[in-house]
Design brief:
mainly beta, 37% strand, single chain, 14% helix, disordered N terminus, 8 strands, three-stranded antiparallel sheet
């Protein structure tokens, strides 16, 4: 399934190309397009985690950051969310001085959109258990018509035993202009590569 990436910064496309280096370490080409439309290329060999299938806890690269998701904040969903899950909250109009903005989404609506994007992105990860969340923060409102995405950073790993380890990661929800809407930290129990018998 094709993925739509929404981010303010230059789009970075990583593509695997057939080569003589074998299946385990395919040569990769990095194309970075700048705002003028020109691009630069260079060949190198790196892990393309976490989208590459068959990866495990010990393959995680601490410090790696990448973007995923594209969640539309629609006026219809905002109204439905308020009616079903936040009836005590007023259906907020646009902030003063923000011309053309649609209705404002509740913070819990933004959180729900993040959870949906996270589930869609990580459902094939070697996740054993989601241990918890911390440092949830909201920075700006999200309005109807905006598109949210997630910037994920692997902050730290904690080795537990020969079967599992804990990943600590930060998640930054951004709008289509790259402005920070919400942030949260997560701890996830991840499986290690199975040890072959014998």
């Amino acid at each position: 399934m094709a993925r739509v990436w929404v981010a303010q910064k230059n789009a970075v496309e990583i593509e695997a190309r057939a080569g003589k280096s074998g299946r385990n370490k395919p040569p990769l080409a990095l194309r970075t397009k700048n705002r003028t439309g020109s691009d630069t290329r260079k060949d190198f060999c790196v892990s393309i985690l976490p989208r590459q299938p068959g990866w495990w806890f010990e393959d995680i690269i601490v410090g790696r950051t990448y973007d995923f998701g594209a969640a539309l904040v629609s006026a219809e969903d905002i109204t439905l969310f308020h009616e079903r899950f936040a009836p005590n909250l007023p259906l907020k109009t646009s902030e003063q001085g923000r011309e053309g903005a649609g209705p404002r989404a509740a913070e819990s609506h933004v959180y729900a959109l993040w959870r949906r994007m996270l589930w869609e992105e990580t459902r094939e990860w070697p996740v054993l258990q989601r241990l918890g969340q911390d440092a949830l923060r909201y920075y700006k409102a999200a309005y109807a018509g905006e598109v949210l995405s997630v910037r994920l950073t692997f902050l730290a790993t904690e080795d537990r035993n020969d079967r599992e380890g804990v990943l600590t990661a930060s998640h930054e929800v951004q709008d289509q202009d790259g402005l920070l809407v919400m942030s949260v930290m997560t701890r996830t129990l991840m499986a290690k590569r199975p040890i072959k018998a014998g």
